[in-house]
Design goal:
By secondary structure, the chain is an alpha+beta fold. It is built from 4 helices and 8 strands; from the N terminus they run H-E-E-H-E-E-E-E-H-E-E-H.
Length: 181
């Protein structure tokens, strides 16, 4: 689905609604890089626990980086999410939300209820999911990968390249587009 204007993720979901229809769906973001992603296990958990939404998360060693995405307040025993916070000034923990999420088609009912963020002038993904949480739908987190990089700046690209080089050296593989000598 092509989004004609960049009005945020919730708008992208709105644009896709007709194509998705009554199907459950998964959201991926092109500016996110995961090491050792676990999407297959995430789909299993979504189905087995009969969840309304499952949010892919990572443990973030640099808590200040969570300010670029969203934070999660959850029950650590069962990973049930109680609160999502878009771009928090003071992240409450080291759990970083990603754009890797799976939704029941019922999430479309919350598009109109999602508030417009006053700072950005668009509807935010955490606010959409929070509407479903507030109505009592089961929403949980799932540790989606070992590490995560959100690419927004040239510095982020350099971090990703450095991480790939470190990961490649540690695993002994040549990595994508590289040949071992």
């Amino acid at each position: 689905m092509i989004q004609d204007e960049p009005k945020g993720l919730v708008h992208a979901i709105e644009c896709s609604q007709r194509a998705i229809g009554d199907s459950d769906f998964m959201l991926f973001l092109a500016d996110e890089i995961l090491r050792d992603p676990r999407h297959r296990e995430m789909v299993r958990r979504f189905e087995n626990d009969n969840l309304f939404v499952i949010c892919g998360v990572v443990q973030e060693p640099r808590v200040e980086e969570i300010r670029k995405t969203y934070a999660i307040i959850q029950n650590d025993a069962d990973h049930r999410i109680y609160r999502l916070i878009e771009k928090p000034r003071n992240p409450p923990n080291a759990i970083r939300g990603t754009g890797n999420c799976i939704f029941r088609a019922g999430i479309f009912e919350y598009l109109e209820l999602t508030p417009i963020n006053q700072n950005r002038g668009e509807k935010e993904l955490p606010d959409l999911i929070q509407c479903a949480i507030d109505d009592g739908h089961p929403v949980k987190s799932f540790e989606i990968g070992n590490s995560y990089i959100n690419i927004n700046t040239p510095e982020d690209i350099a971090i990703a390249e450095d991480a790939d080089a470190v990961g490649t050296a540690a695993s002994g593989s040549a990595g994508p587009g590289r040949r071992r000598s």
